[in-house]
Amino acid sequence: MTQTFYKYQGTGNDFVIIDNRSLKFNKANITLITKLCDRRFGIGADGLILLENHDTADFKMVYFNADGKESSMCGNGGRCITAFAKFLGIVSNTATFEAIDGMHIAEIEGDLVKLQMKDVSTIENHQTHLFLDTGSPHHVQMVSDLEALDVKHNGSTIRHGHPYNEAGSNVNFVNKISDTEFGVRTYERGVEDETFSCGTGVTAVALAMHNSGQTTAETITLQTPGGELKVNYLPSENGYTSIWLIGPAKQVFKGDVPC
Ligand SMILES: N[C@@H](CCC[C@H](N)C(=O)O)C(=O)O
C-alpha cells in the first residue's frame, strides 16, 4: 500500500501534508507518523498535518509533531494547510478551518498566507522570561547573543525543567533589532530541537515584546533562521485580539511512500 503526501514549508518550518478527506489515514499509528517525519529514514519534516472534511468550515486541520503525537496549534502549519486547500481547489483566497484551538480564518495574498490566531488574554511576565499560550505554550526569553546561542541545549533544559516538566513548553530566544523588529530562534517541543521558525512562537514573541514594553508598535517583523514573518494585533486592557500571522507558505514536492 502507498500513501500520497505533499511536502510544504512556511519559513523553513516543514510539514508532510496528507489529504485525509477519506479518513483512511491511521492517526493512531505513531510509528508511521514518526517514520514519515524522520529526516533519514522518511520524508523528513517538523510535523505531519491531515486535511479533513468539516461540517461548517472549509476543512479541519489535525496536527502531529515529528514525535508522532497529536499536539496543540501550529501557526506555520495552519498557513501551509491553507495553501494546500487552495491547491486542492477547496478554497480560493479565503478559508475557514477548525484546528485543535478552535476556528481560524485565513487569507491568501499572492505568496503570503495570513492566519488569524486565537485571542490572548493572559501573559505571565516573570523576571527572566514571559509565558503565554498562542494556541501552543511558549516561553519567551531575551538573550544578548542570539546567533551564538546553543538553542538545542538551552531550549531543552528549559522545556524539560520546572515549571513545564513533562508537558513541556516551546522555548523562544529573542533579540531586539529595532522597535518594530526582533530576531527569534525557537526550540520546539515534540520536535525536541530548534526549528527554522515557529508561527505560534513568533506570535508569542510579538505579544510578549509589546506586553513587556519593548515595543509600542502593533505590527512586528520577526526574523527567524527560515525567513521573515509579520504579526499584527490589537492591544486592549483585556489582552490582544485580531492577531494575524503573515508569511510565505510553499509546496516543495509531492510523492508516494510505502506504508
Ligand atoms: N511549529 C508550530 C508549533 C507546533 C506545535 C509545537 N511544537 C507544540 O507541540 O507546542 C508553529 O508554527 O506554531
Q: Considering DSSP H and I runs of 4 or more, what fraction of the residues is helical?
A: 10-25%
Shape: globular
Q: Strand pairing plus helix content: what structural class?
A: alpha+beta
By CATH, the topology of the largest domain is: Diaminopimelate Epimerase, Chain A, domain 1
Helix count equals 4
Contiguous runs where pLDDT drops below 50 for at least 5 residues: none
Please give the CATH class of the largest domain.
Alpha Beta
- Rg, please? 17 Å
Describe what this molecule looks like in 3D:
The chain starts with a strand and ends with a strand. The protein has 259 residues and is an alpha+beta fold. It has a 17-stranded mixed sheet that branches. 17% of the residues lie in helices and 45% in strands. A hairpin with a 2-residue loop joins strand 14 and strand 15. The chain contains four helices and 17 strands. The chain has helices at 30-37, 75-88, 151-160, 199-211, and strands spanning 2-10, 13-19, 47-52, 59-65, 94-99, 102-109, 112-117, 123-125, 130-133, 137-142, 170-178, 181-188, 193-195, 219-224, 227-236, 239-248, 250-258. It has two domains: 2-111 and 249-258, Diaminopimelate Epimerase, Chain A, domain 1 (Roll), CATH 3.10.310; 123-246, Diaminopimelate Epimerase, Chain A, domain 1. It is globular. 40% of the residues are buried. Residues 13, 46, 65, 71-72, 74-77, 136, 170, 188-191, 198-201 line the site of the ligand N[C@@H](CCC[C@H](N)C(=O)O)C(=O)O. The record marks 138, 188 as: Could be important to modulate the pK values of the two catalytic cysteine residues. Catalyzes the stereoinversion of LL-2,6-diaminopimelate (L,L-DAP) to meso-diaminopimelate (meso-DAP), a precursor of L-lysine and an essential component of the bacterial peptidoglycan. The active site is at residues 74, 198.
